[in-house]
Write a structure and sequence with these properties.
Order of helices and strands of chain A: HEEHHHHHHHHHHHH
Number of domains of chain C: 1
Strand order of the largest sheet of chain A: 1-2
Structural class of chain A: mainly alpha
Number of domains of chain A: 2
Order of helices and strands of chain C: HHHHHHHHHHH
Helix content of chain A: 55-70%
CATH topology of chain C: MetI-like fold
Oligomer: heterotrimer
CATH architecture of chain C: Orthogonal Bundle
Chains: A mainly alpha (300), B alpha+beta (353), C mainly alpha (272)
Strand content of chain C: under 5%
Helix content of chain C: over 70%
Chain lengths: 300, 353, 272
């Protein structure tokens, strides 16, 4: 990428280019600092503040919120349930998504373009609409059950909706395109000639894949897993729409704590846990492939 | 017509010095090549002339006027880039007309000048096409038309043919020379291809590590290289260690290490001095026998390898433990490895640096 | 060889099923929106436009639609202007700190919306600001900004530097070069990313729930509210409209992206 452009700043003819560069980037920088980074800092600060019995927040340092989080098995249970959800969804997406991502690299350019476009299509469609589209499919009188009943495979409708099953299905559907995109970007970065070289050196196709393609494409898979895990952990809408009694997940807890209980310091503490996982994931990724490879572009 | 002069020019990128204390005069109407391996500073030099880079030190002058601080767009130099750099969203016509729009040329005049430029590059019928609908050679011709239509004071070429395939390159070489001749314009041509530089230029400047290694006409560079680097840049060179056994005013007699004794013309050295001699592979000849003539040295040897290169054949001949590489026309060749042959070397073919 | 072909067909079949899984449910919703039965169940009983007509009578939905349109328009316009400026800076100039800055401007893509929602809400609170429509716009702008920066800077970097240099050697100054060369080549990407920003803002729900002023609904939060009661056919009709609108916008963005392509250009070679 660096080979494509080299800066125009080289000439002393326009010595003010540095000022121009900064002037152009500063508004965006301010936005991110003021509306994303500073707020995250606020979360950090709030989690050490005290909530009085009246519901008001007092600006005095306390570890009570953290004691409550780690001391109460209810919160730990939900955290663990959510981590399990995120882990399973990530695993399923990676396993299910790798095949299609690899397939895209095999087909003709025209078909490849179509498949890539279709991958991006879901991200244009509302999350909430995509989640609720499972309702008429998985419901008691939904598409699946009516089909199965008609074929006589079952006599009673299966309980497919408003439980963990539908949440897992909804989340995998939501996050799978992101996983495939990232794996595909990783695969795209692998030089085809290196794989061919491995083949001429005596590796069979499977050996060439496992010893060359897979390790070289790993950053893409890792980026996909990081993205899917974090987004699954923070998913609020899916459990609300597709879940039922007793299917509370972490993001729902955060929302309830803020909106229903108005307990801002504790809500901040809960949110900070998500940020912790995000930062840990990013650090892991940076170790593996360097952060600069995180947002690579799809080549046409 | 305009000439251009560079005085003590220096340019550094980060920790790398790209050009160091460069002094160069390009005469009006001359076709001058900057030749050298990649990283030698030739493109940086060209970009400084164009105004795309600003020299850290030194001056660039036109008619004794310093132009360092004249921005690119006011210099009126046409430039042809390596990968044509046509504007992908403009037709060939609009690409060529682009420069005229910033020169207050009247509309009718623009039309006339673009048509003429397209005629000069022999592409009269592609005006309405987009660059992506043109072949590689056509793209480069349009790029050339775009550069000459502004009637530049100086024409700059940055390896314009390196992205083309071999046959097209040959054809474009001839074209470029014809157009340069037609326009009678000063041109600076950057290339790493010695054949390109030798065949097209009035003068060649060979660069190495940001400095000028040697400059002169193509013939001078080939015949009288000033350094081992210069010699090796234009083809294959043998190097032989030797000891001077007798010295004279117009030459000397040396004993090649481990090999025979030879007379050498034009090289002065002191008796007993160890020297290193160089010999172009194409100046030596081999054959089954040669008549004894003055001004030639002949020795017996054995062919160890022979590589058929098309027009030429490359032989490696072992002469009493010294290997010589000999390039010779392949016509009628019947020589094979292990053949006993005679090597004949003109006594003025030896070089010493 | 035939084993490889079989494997490839198998992968193809798997890909087809996966794509169906990702895309078909939306299609079901669109089809179902025309069903005559008042509950969204199978099998279909007949075709009708009734639910769309009812939707057009629903003041709550129309109000939410208006709010969402204004919100998305404001947020995407702002993020397009701010984001394009940043992308220009990051791809056209080389200056110290450019790499980290690029990262900083794109990394918010990874932050879950629930965290963004909580964070900005707390920040408002710290500065004593009440929830309001302008703050909602600000939040949405910050959320869509990284996408604009990312897409536009990728596109700008695909424009070889020597095209702009050529323009300058031909007599165009920096500003003229920008207007005649850089801008026309980057514009499709800018427009496409602003369409995406518009759609993301229009569809955003998680963070919006935190920021929404009282007595105000956007389309997604309105759907949330309607879902609390029952899954009636009006929701399906609304969802169908959203899906169709999204696909149309996506197609428009795609067409824009292809309109002026610089992909035929070889990236510039090494400088010597």
């Amino acid at each position: 990428m660096n080979g494509v452009r080299h800066g125009n700043v080289a000439s002393g003819i326009a010595g003010d280019t540095r000022a121009l560069a900064w002037a152009l980037v500063t508004p965006a920088l301010c936005c991110v600092v003021a509306f994303v980074l500073a707020p995250i800092l606020c979360i950090g600060i709030y989690s050490f503040w005290t909530r009085l019995a009246t519901g008001a927040v007092q600006f005095s340092f306390t570890l009570d919120n953290w004691r409550e989080l780690f001391g109460d098995s209810f919160y730990m249970l939900i955290l663990l349930r959510t981590l399990r959800l995120a882990a399973v969804v990530t695993l399923v997406c990676a396993i299910v998504g790798y095949g299609p991502a690899y397939y895209i690299t095999l087909v003709s350019p025209a078909r490849r373009a179509l498949l890539v476009i279709l991958l991006f299509l879901p991200s244009w469609i509302s999350y909430i609409v995509r989640s609720m589209s499972w309702l008429p499919i998985l419901g008691k009188e939904g598409l699946f059950n009516s089909l199965l009943l008609r074929t006589g495979l079952i006599t009673e409708p299966l309980p497919l909706l408003y439980n963990d099953f539908s949440i897992y299905v909804g989340l995998v559907q939501f996050l799978l395109p992101l996983m495939i995109i990232n794996i595909y970007i990783g695969l795209q970065a692998v030089d085809r000639k290196v794989v061919d070289a491995a083949r001429t050196l005596g590796a069979n196709p499977a050996q060439a894949f496992w010893s060359v393609t897979f390790p070289l494409a790993l950053p893409g898979l890792a980026a996909g897993c990081l993205l899917v895990f974090i987004l699954a952990m923070g998913a609020y809408i899916t459990p609300i729409i597709l879940g039922g009694p007793g299917t509370t997940y972490y993001a729902n807890l955060v929302f309830e704590t803020f909106v229903s209980h108005q307990d801002w310091p504790f809500g901040a503490t809960l949110s900070l846990v998500i940020i912790f996982f995000l930062v840990a994931g990013l650090a892991g990724y940076a170790q593996l492939a360097g952060l600069s490879t995180m947002f690579r572009e799809i080549r046409r | 017509m305009t000439g251009i002069e560079l005085r003590h020019v220096r340019k550094q990128f980060g920790a790398t010095v790209a050009v160091e204390d460069l002094n160069l005069v390009v005469r009006a109407g001359e076709f001058l090549s900057l030749l050298g391996p990649s990283g030698c500073g030739k493109t940086t030099t060209l970009r400084m002339v164009a105004g795309l880079e600003y020299p850290d030190k030194g001056d660039i002058l036109i008619n004794e006027q310093r132009i360092n601080d004249i921005p690119v767009h006011r210099r009126n130099f046409g430039m042809v880039f390596q990968d044509h750099a046509l504007f992908p969203h403009k037709t060939a016509y609009d690409n060529i007309a682009f420069g005229l729009k910033y020169r207050q040329v009247e509309r009718a005049d623009i039309e006339r000048r673009v048509r003429r430029a397209l005629d000069i590059v022999r592409l009269p019928n592609v005006g309405d096409r987009l660059p992506r609908d043109l072949s590689g050679g056509q793209q480069q011709r349009v790029a050339l038309a775009r550069a000459i239509v502004i009637e530049p004071d100086l024409l700059l070429f940055d390896e314009p043919l390196s992205a083309l395939d071999a046959n097209l390159r040959e054809e474009m070489r001839v074209e470029l020379k014809r157009i340069h001749h037609t326009l009678a314009i000063t041109a600076i041509y950057v290339t790493h291809d010695q054949a390109e530089a030798l065949s097209m230029s009035d003068r060649v400047v060979l660069m190495r590590d940001g400095r000028i290694e040697q400059q002169g006409t193509p013939d001078e560079l080939y015949r009288k290289p000033a350094s081992e680097f210069s010699a090796r840049f234009f083809g294959q060179v043998n190097d032989v260690s030797a000891t001077v056994i007798a010295a004279a005013d117009n030459g000397c007699r040396v004993k090649l290490d481990g090999g025979p004794e030879v007379d050498i013309a034009g090289i002065r050295a002191n008796t007993g001095e160890p020297i290193k001699l160089f010999l172009r592979a194409e100046r030596a000849q081999i054959g089954l026998s040669f008549p004894n003539e003055p001004g030639f040295a002949t020795f017996e040897g054995t062919i160890t390898t022979c590589d058929y290169l098309g027009v030429l054949t490359r032989y490696v001949v072992d002469v009493a433990g010294v290997s010589f590489v000999v390039l010779q026309s392949a016509a009628g060749s019947v020589l094979r490895p292990r053949d006993r042959v005679t090597v004949r070397i003109p006594s003025d073919a030896w070089m010493k640096f | 060889m035939s084993a490889r072909r079989a494997l490839r067909s198998l992968l193809g079949a798997l890909t087809l099923i996966t794509y169906l899984f990702m895309l078909a449910p939306a299609l079901v919703v669109v089809v179902l929106a025309f069903n005559t039965s008042p509950s969204s169940t199978f099998p279909m009983t007949g075709l009708t436009f009734r639910w769309f007509a009812e939707l057009a009578q629903d003041d709550a939905v129309l109000g939410a639609l208006w709010n969402s349109l204004v919100l998305a328009l404001c947020a995407s316009t702002l993020s397009t202007v701010v984001g394009t400026a940043a992308a220009l800076s990051l791809s056209c100039f080389r200056f110290a700190g450019r790499g980290p800055m690029q990262l900083m401007l794109t990394v918010p893509i990874l932050v879950p919306h629930i965290v963004l929602g909580v964070g900005l809400l707390l920040a408002f609170r710290v500065f004593g600001l009440a929830k309001s429509f302008p703050l909602l716009v600000i939040g949405h702008m910050a959320m869509t900004l990284p996408y604009v920066v990312l897409t536009t800077s990728h596109r700008l970097r695909a424009i070889p530097a020597n095209i702009e240099e050529a323009a300058r050697t031909l007599g165009a100054n920096r500003i003229q070069t920008f207007c005649a060369i850089t801008l026309p080549l980057a514009l499709p990407a800018v427009l496409a990313s602003s369409l995406f920003a518009f759609m993301s803002s229009f569809d955003e729900v998680t963070a919006t729930l935190f920021w929404l002023p009282a007595n105000m609904q956007t389309v997604p939060t309105q759907i949330m509210a309607m879902l609390q009661f029952s899954v009636d056919q009006k929701i399906n009709a609304l969802a169908a409209l959203l899906i169709v609108g999204s696909v149309v916008l996506a197609a428009a963005a795609l067409a824009l992206g292809r309109a002026l392509s610089v992909d035929e250009q070889r990236p510039r070679g090494k400088r010597t």
